[in-house]
Structure formats: C-alpha cells, structure tokens
Amino acid sequence: MNLNNTPSANRTHIGIFGRRNAGKSSLINALTGQNLAIVSEIEGTTTDPVQKAMELLPLGPVVMIDTPGLDDVGELGAQRVQKTKQVLNKTDIALLVVDAGQGMTAADEEILQQIQKKGIPHIVVFNKADLLPPDQKHLKDVANPTVSSNLDGKGLAGSNDIAVSAVTGERIQELKELIAHLVPDNEQERHIVRDLVRPLDFVILVVPIDSAAPKGRLILPQQQTIRDLLESEAVSIVVKETELSETLHRLGRKPDLVITDSQAFEEVANVVPNDVSLTSFSILFARYKGNLDTVVQGAKELDKLEEDDHILICEGCTHHRQCDDIGTVKLPHLIRAHCGKRLHFDFTSGGEFPSDLNAYRLIIHCGGCTLNEREMKYRLQCAADQNVPITNYGTAIAHMKGILERSTKIFHL
Q: How far is CA 262 from CA 131, 237, 331, 394, 400, in A?
C-alpha cells in the first residue's frame, strides 16, 4: 500500500503548539525537510491551524498540524487560541515548542497542563538552541537535557525535553526518533471486514450513485472496505441498488455478505434473502472504531424523543452539501416521520463540535471515516460525560427501518 494514499484518519496526528515566534513553522520545515509552512519574523504568521499529510521517517504516514501562537492577542487572537486548543482533541502526539532563550512562560505551562490532562504523549522542544549564550551551549550536546536548572530557571525538567535548532538542523534527527518512540504499539490489529469473511467469499457492496455522491470516485468508507476485502482475498462485487436483484439472480449462489450504503438499507433488505448476512458501511466503521455498542444503544433513543427535543447532527468532513444531503435533509425527514413529533435540528461539520451538549436529547454522527481515533473518542466521551446518547447515520437508519437487529447479527450483539 502506498503510504501517500493512507487516509488521514489512519495517520498519526502530530500537533505543534507554542507561542508566536517560538519557531513552530520552522520546526515543521526542519522535521519534514520541506518548506511546508510559511516562516516569518512577524509574530502571528500562522493564523489558523494548518494540516499537512506527509511521510515522516521513521514514523511513516503522519499529519502535521501547525497552530497559531498561544499568546495571540485581541478578540481575533482569542478565537485563534481557542482553535489551537481544539486541535488537542485530535492530537496523537504533541510538540510544545519553546524559545530556548526565553524558556517556559505561563502560556506554555497552561497548554502543557491541558496536554497532560488529556493524556497526550508529548515532547517539550526547546528551539533556537543555536542562539543560546555561551554558558548554556552545553544544552545542545545532550539529546534529552534536564533543563530545570538551566535557562535561568525558566525550563521544565522531563525525560522528553530536547533542545534543537530548526535553523541549523541540530538534534532534529534525535527529535524524530523521540517522536517515533511515543507512537503507541498497536495492541491488536483491527479490520473493517476482513475478519468476517474467508478467501473467495462473495461479498456484494451496494453503492448508490445519486446527486450527493462525489463525481468520479467512491466515498472513503467504500474505498477502504473494498481494500480490506482485497486483503482478505474475498471476491468483491460492487453494484448500485437498482442492479442488486438482477446481480443476485445472475450470481447463481447466495452471497456470503452484503454491505450497503445506509440510504439504501430498506430497499436492499427487501431484496437480500433473510439467511444472508447484511450490514452497512456505517455499522462496520462503528465496530472498526470501537463504538458499535454505544451507537446501537443510542439509536434506540429515537423511540423516546419528545415534542420540541433538540437533536445535533454531526458530519466529520466538509463536503459540499447537495439539496438531498443525508445529514441535513434526509435524516431529519426520516426522524420526524419515525417519531411523529416536532423536533429541532442543529448541524456541525468538519472540526466543529460543541463542548456544551446539554441542550441536546440525542446526537447523530456520521461514520467518522475522516476523523482519527482520538478525535472520535473525544466526541463520544463528551457525549457520555454529559449523559447525551449518541448514534451514527447508518445505525439510526437501520433502527428506524426495523432492521438493526439483522444488520448487527453478524457481530453477535
């Protein structure tokens, strides 16, 4: 598999934090060996978090996230700082960049405390070590300096502190290796569907092509599922819902599994024999991300909605919405028809997710294929902490269509 094609959600997300002019953008360029970030002596050059998907040896595929300065000022500055703090929710490894000549400040300490509180593996990077005065030059000669007794007492002692120079390249390789050591070992390899099928099993994937479908390509969950089936040496048959019945007839045997887009769930369930396993891409991805039990229980809350309840519908990506968009149009219509109640809907997309969820009776999230595991877990935990049930598109639709039990039977729930 070409690492450059690794989906963003499956890459290690490295967040770069620090004050303005601490050298965050210079450090990214030094780590990557490319001019990915704009470097300037003018404070506040980076005004919004910027993501760069790339390869970083010896780690492999990563997403580098350059953030605005923690000490930004003014009304806009406060908003930028808030955006920076939101990046923590999807950061797998945090680099706190400190100007070695100035040492830790209150702003650095504050973000470090938040990094530690969230349990994010991190490194304090004392940048601009080439500019240190002569009596502190020895800091450049150790990979993991204990700096609390140096830098005029402004430093922070820790086994993951390192002094580097983004300008000269000193200790950059050591920093890369230190980052690599912070990447957690995979406890158990997870699969989207590979563990559910055997070599040469026939698997039919039902993929509607409507006005909301991306032109010339399949959406990410469909691509990833096909790839996982190829890895399992199963036989993938991709059809539109309008060709499913004829495909089943021509196949000459029952398929071992049918996977459908949620929007075609009811139509597909009516065509596929009851003794054939049936599920959806959304349900598969809920299991893959480890939250299937949670979203199944959340879907059942649809039966308990009351008049004037508020529902939050969240989309992980920022695709252009069509007139029949599933999140903003089809789901609200289905839910109102299912409940027969007057309901109110709010919508978010991309990185936006409200910290205060108390106004909502239920959250319905997309499959989260573009979100990494840490961000998805953060959102689930926010919902759990505030006692707000959460489900996803496919699971909600399966429940409303009366086929949730059948679509999860393959997982022995």
A: 58, 17, 11, 5, 11
Handedness of CA 211, 217, 219, 222 (dihedral sign): positive
Q: How far is CA 218 from the centre of its chain?
A: 19
Nearest CA to 8 among 285, 220, 190, 313? 220
If asked whether residues 51 and 157 sit together in one domain, one would say yes
Structural domain includes residue 188 = no
The CA–CA distances, whole Å, from 151 to 70, 99, 143, 160, 181 equal 21, 10, 16, 17, 26
Give the residue carrying structure tokens 């149009």. Answer: 329
Q: Exposed, middle or buried: residue 168 (CB in 10 Å: 0-12, 13-18, 19+)?
A: middle
Angstrom distance (rounded) from CA 394 to CA 282:
5
Give the tens place of pLDDT for each residue, 76-98. Answer: 767 777 777 888 888 999 999 99
Where among 250, 284, 318 does a domain terminate?
284
Number of CB atoms found within 10 A of residue 224's CB: 21
Residues in the chain with pLDDT < 50? Answer: 1-4, 38-46, 141-158, 187, 323
CB atoms under 10 Å from CB of 277, counted, come to 19
Contact 375, 289 (CB under 8 A): no
Judge whether 23 and 166 are in contact, CB under 8 Å: yes
Residue 101 located in a structural domain: yes
Q: Does the bond joining 133 to the residue before it have cis omega, within 30 degrees of 0?
A: no
Beta bridge partners of 239: 206
Cα–Cα distance measured from residue 103 to residue 147, given in angstroms and rounded to the nearest whole number: 9
Secondary structure class of 53 (helix, strand, coil): strand
Total count of domains within the chain: 3
Helical ranges in 50-207 per DSSP H: 74-87, 106-117, 172-182
pLDDT in tens, 283-331: 999 998 888 999 999 999 999 999 999 999 998 876 555 546 788 899 9
Match 């959340």 to its residue by tokens.
298
405, part of any domain? no
Tokens, residue 165: 């120079």
Tokens 């004829």 appear where? 246
Query: How many CA atoms are closer than 13 Å to the CA of 398, on its beta-carbon side?
Result: 29
Q: Which domain holds residue 247?
A: 194-284
The CATH number of whichever domain residue 247 belongs to comes to: 3.40.50.11420
